[in-house]
Amino acid sequence: MKKNIALAVVAAALLATGCTRIETGTVGLRVNMSNVVEQQELQPGSWNQTLVGHVLEFPVRSIQVAWNNLTPQTADNSTLKDFDVAMVYDINPTAVSDIWVNQSRSFHSYDDKHGEWYLMHNYMSQLLNSASVKAVRKYNALSVADNRANIEADIKTIVDQMMKEENLDKSITVSQVRVANATPADDIVASANAAVRAQSDLKTKQVEVEIAKQEAIRIQTLNSNSQAIPYMNAMSQMEIAKAVREGKVHTIVIPADFKGMLNVGK
Length: 266
Known about the structure:
Mean pLDDT: 81
Distance between the termini: 135 Å
Order of helices and strands: HEEEEEEEHEEHHEHH
Oligomer: single chain
């Protein structure tokens, strides 16, 4: 009896150490003792023995590729100072075996830290680079940042078309493209700022010229009127009288031929 219990414990221990569980968001493939990959995908949540052969696990959800510090050319033949872009894609769980067996190993990347293969990671990275260059080329340097959403949509369209041409559109789905940064070259920014300053200066000068024209018209109109000078003198005297009444004037220069009346306070 005790012997049977001991054997059962040993068997359970062997099963525990000789099994692997496929985690959520991943798909497994069994490699048998002949080092042949079996075609049936191992689904998330399943327990699979590894006493004979071994199991490969592949993440299939939300795999990201990214490029930082790209310098693509724009429509006006300027080179961007910095362009950062990222793309997220998913692998069809039923296509894992076909991709692993039939696609080049150089298309995939291996994560030493987690011990996992990322299917088509290198391949999708190159597609992202190529699509970014094509998408940015449609816009002038100073309009790239304002057209991030359009560029993201263009990149996705280009990548989808490339995958369709390679018959990968049913196996891989791009879920998101995000342009994190798009910075024009320093000389382009400097030129744009100089142009803005020049336009501002031009508008200021145009306003000054218009004011001068209106003033000239006003003076010409007054000079053409015979009553202009008496009118201006009368207006000046009225302003002086107003200032005297308000106590703002304490000294008045009286001309020699003054003939009016003046009331001076204490």
